[in-house]
Amino acid sequence: MFIFDIAIGFFILLxxxxxxxxxFVIAEKPFSALFSCLLFVGLSDLFxxxxxxxxxxxxxxxxxxxxxxxxxxGLAWSFPKWWFYVRKLRDEFNVTLVDYRKRYRIDPxxxxxxxxxxxxxxxxxxxxxxxxxxxxxxxxxxxxxWMMYWPFSIIGTLCDEPLKKAxxxxxxxxxxxxxKISESAFRGVEL
Length: 191
Hints:
Largest sheet: none
Helix content: over 70%
Order of helices and strands: HHHHHHH
Radius of gyration: 24 Å
């Protein structure tokens, strides 16, 4: 029964680590993810005698091949992930630009002049004052995070993005109803 209790403890620790890693990768916190990995390995070796470090020490060839495969898979994943990321940025940029043009009554078919571009940067608190299109060199940490934690990045991308799109679709479908409820609740209220 004691060994069963130890196994349960290890799998609880493993499940907690997997959830932590998924959260850190989605939140784009690579150093927290690395710290949690090291902490997990240390705790599992200390409390559950998993022998991870000894296994690595005695099988360097296998570890090297596994590491090469892992790095290759991470590199392969980083390209579609970068594509998803820059597409999301482009969509955010377009929405912000449309809002800006509406607010300042700028014709959408007219190219912005230098003064309007500066006002746009002020309007967005300089969020878009960096390079358009985004430079990969300015996103090195993010891309390396996707490469290092690619299994969690894939899970996060496949779960997070479709869920966000689905809930945004539901919201847009019922936005008018939400607004009617708001207007009804504030009927007769004036400043």
